[in-house]
Backbone:
């Protein structure tokens, strides 16, 4: 198989069957303009041949890193399957209509939380955030909660995949796919 998206789909479907919590959880690693790396967990909210999508506050640290350096890596680790997939590529913002549609699908409390949170900024105490959440609840009472102007989605367009399968005695299998124009070159790595 020389299509990494098809192999991803097979492995992801198996993970949805075996992972108890958040089979769509992935680590995203970014780096700022100075090359300082930062990694955190996010949830995959869409995927296909055009890339892998997650959503966040555009004033967060990860969004700041992406604005300064639009290259990133994501990692899926499925302990139950003893597998992981590493994907590296370029990050871009999703279209507004896609971000609007996803935001509208979120729970109301999650929507209100997006308005109330200054994600990644210092918070004096939990009560401050809870007060802001209460203010947003009152502000949007009786109406739909629109997507905040500082909240959107990002798509990682892959340039490289690595599929890692655990094997006994650390004799793991590592398959790579590297973008070559519109095609992919497949290879293997030593464990």
Residues:
């Amino acid at each position: 198989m020389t299509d990494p998206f098809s192999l991803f789909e097979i492995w992801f479907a198996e993970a949805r069957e075996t992972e108890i919590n958040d089979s769509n959880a992935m680590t995203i690693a970014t780096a700022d303009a100075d090359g300082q790396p930062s990694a955190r967990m996010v949830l995959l909210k869409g995927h296909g041949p055009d890339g892998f999508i997650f959503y966040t506050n555009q004033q967060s640290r990860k969004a700041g890193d992406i604005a300064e350096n639009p290259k990133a890596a994501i990692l899926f680790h499925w302990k139950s399957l003893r597998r992981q997939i590493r994907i590296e590529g370029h990050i871009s913002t999703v279209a507004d209509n896609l971000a609007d549609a996803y935001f509208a699908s979120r729970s109301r409390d999650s929507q209100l939380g997006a308005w109330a949170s200054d994600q990644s900024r210092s918070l004096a105490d939990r009560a401050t955030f809870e007060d802001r959440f209460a203010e947003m609840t009152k502000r949007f009472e009786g109406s739909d909660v629109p997507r905040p102007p500082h909240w959107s989605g990002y798509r990682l367009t892959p340039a490289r995949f690595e599929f890692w399968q655990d094997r006994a005695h650390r004799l793991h299998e590592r398959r790579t796919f590297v973008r070559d124009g519109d095609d992919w070159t497949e290879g293997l790595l030593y464990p």
